[in-house]
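Chapter review: from sequence to fold.
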Amino acid sequence: MMGRHRAVQQALAMMLSSSSTRQAHRSRGHLNAFVYRGRATGQGIPEVIGRMLKSIYPKIKVTYAGPDEATAICATTLCDVDIFAHGGSPGT
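The token string follows.
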């Protein structure tokens, strides 16, 4: 289990170091991330992803989005998102 978390953390670190991510940070001073929370994710996985994003990049604004969340996922809401994370689990 811990090995899988380390792999996710490394993948997020690589994503956050991309040039487009750095550009977004320079223009706004922070990054915006949507983390999908809904039926297609494993229990607790969105929260782990959110914590990992914040541990790698403390100034990130994480918003949980999905069918039962205050923020819906659509073209309008995705316009200002730098990172969209959807964590699945075996069987989802």
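Two observations follow directly from the output. The helical segments are 2-16, 19-28, 45-56, 75-78. The longest strand covers residues 32-36.
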